[in-house]
Request: fold
Amino acid sequence: MVPVLLILIPLLAGLATFFFKNEKAVRLWALFSAIITLVISVLGLTLLKEEKYLQHSCEWIQTIGSRFSVKLDGMGQLLCLLNAVAYPLVILATWKSAYKKSNNFFALMLLAQAGMMGVFLATDALLFYFFWELALIPMYFLCSQWGGERRIAVTFKFFIYTFIGSLLMLVGLLYIYSKTPDHSFSIESFYNVVLSNKEQTLVFWLIFVAFAIKMPIFPLHTWQPDTYEQAPTATTMILSGVMVKMGIFGMLRWLFPVVTTASYQWGDFITSAALIGVIYASLIAIQQNDLKRLVAYSSIAHIGLMCAAAFAQNESGLQGLILQMFNHGVNIIGLWIVVELIERQFGTRKISELGGLAQKAPALAILLVIVALANIALPLTNAFPGEFLMFNGIFSSSTKYYLWFTLMAGMGIILGAVYTLNMIRRVFYGNTNELTAAAEDIKWNEKLALGIIVLIIFWNGVYPQCMLNEISGVTEPILKKFEILRYTTIPK
Reply:
C-alpha cells in the first residue's frame, strides 16, 4: 500500500487545499502533507521493504485491459524519494514568498506532486500516461497564473511543446497495445511484445520525442529557459528538480525494454545531439547575466549528459544515471533556492548588479558555495559518484565514437565549472555596491532548507553505496536485451 499512499496523500491534500482560506493555514497544511509523504517514502525504503507493501494492483478500465497497477522498485524509490524530499524543502525555502490566492497555488503544487508520484510508480502504460498528464496540467496553471510579465506567451509555448509530445506518446503506446497478444496495457505485456525493425523505429520516435521534450534535450529545449525564467521560483524548483526526470525515467522504464533494437540503432545519433546540447547550453550559460537563465541552461547541460549516459547502454552509465537523477534534483533545487533568496531581497536577478554578498550574508555564501561545488561534481559531494559512473559509462560504451563522446562530455563538465565558479565570484565576492551594502543574511527557515541539502550532498558524496544498493539489479532487464543485440548485430 506504500505506492498508493504516495499518490493518495498529495492528491487528497491538494484537493482539500482549494477550500482553505487562511494563508498561514494553507502553508502549514501543505508542509504537513509534504512531510507525511516524505515519511511514507522513507518507510518504503526502510521498514516496509517487503514486496506486499511495495506494490498494488486492482481493476481500473478492465474492458480495454488496463489496471491500476503501481509498484515501488529501486529506480522508482529514488525518484519518489526525490519528489518527497523536494516539496518540504521548497515550501520551507519560500515560506516568506507571497502568492495571490495561495490556496489555489499550493493545491496545484500538491496535485502535481501526486501526478509525478504516479509516473514513477505506474506499471500500466495507460495509467502511466494518465499520471503524466496529471503532473503537467497543474504546471500550466501555475506558470500562467503566478508567472512573470511574459507568462501567457511562455506558458502557451510550454503547452504546445508538451501537448504535441504527449499526443505522440499516446499514439506510440496505443500502437504497442494493439500488438500485445492479450490486449493489455500491463508492463509485462509491453516488454514481451514483438515488433519488426520498422515498427520499432516508428514507436521509438513517437515516444522518444515526448521524453526528449520533457527532459529537455537539444534541439527540443527552447521552451525551457523562458518557462523557468517566467514561472514562480517555487514552481521552477519542482520543474527543474523533479519533473524533468520524468523523461529520463520514461526512457528507462517504457522505451529501452520495449523497443530495444531501435534504441540501440539510434543511440549514436541521440548521444551526439545530447552532447552537442551539453556544450551549447554551457556556452550560453557562460554568457548569461540573469541568474535564473544561467541555472536553466545549467540544467539543460546536466540533463544532456544524463541522456548520453543512458544511451551508453552499460551498467556503469545506467547506474550513474539513476544515481545522478536524485543528486542533480537536490543540487538544482539548492541553486534555485539561492536565486529565490537573492531576488526576494534585492529585487533583481542580474549578476552585474550584485557583488560582495559574502561580506553581508556569510551563511548564504557558505551554503551556496557548497551547493555550487556539488553541482560541478567536486569529489566528496553527491554529484561526483554519479557523474564519474556516467563518464565511465560513456567511455566504456560499445560505439566506435566513444572517444569523441567522452571528449565532448569532458568539455561540457569543464564548461560547467567555468560558469558556476564565475557566478560565485561575481555574486558573492568582490566589493559591495549600493544595492548589496545593506544586505541581510538568510532566515532560520532558509538556513534549514539549505542545511538539509548540504547534509544530503555530503552524505551521498561520502557514502554513495547506500543509494547504489537500492538500485542494484534495476538495470539488469535492460542490459540483458542490449547485450543480446551486441552479439547478434553489427557493432555501432
User: Anything to note?
Assistant: DSSP finds 23 helices and two strands in the chain. Residues 315-346 form the longest helix (32 residues). The mean pLDDT is 86.
